[in-house]
Amino acid sequence: MLELSPSPVLSIPSLRDKVTPAEWQARVNLAACYRLMDLYGMSDMMANHISCRVPGEDGAFLINAYGMSYDEITASSLIKIDVKGNILLKPDFGDLGYGVNRAGFVIHGAIHEASHEIDCVIHTHTWPGMAVSSLECGLLPMNQTSMRFLKIGYHEFEGVVLDLSMQERLVQDLGDNNALILRNHGLLTVGRTIAEAFNAMHRLELSCKAQLAALACNAEIHPVPPKVLEETYMNYQPQTRRPYGVMEWPGLLRKLDRLDPSFRD
């Protein structure tokens, strides 16, 4: 049973012996992603969610327990559910009884069911993301980093994402893009790996911050010719470069290991 003690750390029994080696590795990487999101200032206490597909289990994915903050999530604390929201494997949270945020299931279940090539989905409510999502102009391709998202998708706000009827429109608005701006809400990125999705969110967040800083100067923004915008966008696409996240992910894991390796538990 979960220990409810004065300790500031939750003691959750390990699930390592109850899952395949491939799933355990996915759990470690996903827990690392949660810690990194918090480390880089992209978490929202216990709100928001990151998911990843379970290797070898069609329709199953891992997601955070609703009630835990990003900086305390571990490989064993993640809950395994299917695309219909059914819980397949849940850690022993004792009297806390944590479950899954319904909005997380609706958003992530829709994308994982629609595209088997996507392994990871990240959703945030950061202040830069919420600010840009509320601007009529959306994300402006005003610098090299934001040009990567020249063809980003947009999804109109329909209220808190709790209704299953929203799933089809969400998937349609994402399309073939790896990023989506949820109007008046926040940001979403996807990736063929956890590292790729994290890279996309980190860059999208940076793009939003740069745009808000530039707009705050109340000065004219220097334009970039459409041809250059398109060429720059194409330079960021999978067919022209190595997959994102490949180089930096091992270094990010080493960073976490130096700070607090408990994400691996």
Automatic annotation (TrEMBL):
Gene3D superfamilies in alphabetical order: Class II aldolase/adducin N-terminal domain (3.40.225.10)
Entry protein name: Class II aldolase/adducin family protein
Organism: Roseococcus pinisoli
Family from the record: Belongs to the aldolase class II family.
Domain Class II aldolase/adducin N-terminal: 28-212
